[in-house]
Amino acid sequence: MFDFFLSPATAHNVWFVILLTGVVTYITRSAGHVVLARFKNLHPRVEAALEAVPGAVLVTIVLLPALINGPVEVLAMLAALIASFRLSPIAVLAVGMAIVIGGRALGF
Predict the structure, then answer these.
(1) DSSP string of the chain, one letter each residue
(2) What is the total count of domains within the chain?
């Protein structure tokens, strides 16, 4: 039934996977909202844990490629970490990107 997943990528496969990913993402986000909307007050620890999720996901996505690619990416991550204590998220992103772009332009 799902043999086309094993075949080389075609336009049909790619669009199906994009659509399926979108549907699953929508369902999980909607379900989370429905579940949390049932509670009037959340415990402060639960709120803190939920606020930490985006950062944890970002680190999970970025850490391995940064460690595999080289020292410039690690330097950018450390600089962004330090900048995140004082700057807005957009500024932190700009700091990290500037370091990676500059490092690659210099040949690192």
Answers:
(1) --GGGTSPP-HHHHHHHHHHHHHHHHHHHHHHHHHHHT-SS--HHHHHHHHHHHHHHHHHHHHHHHHHH-HHHHHHHHHHHHHTTTS-HHHHHHHHHHHHHHHHHTT-
(2) 2
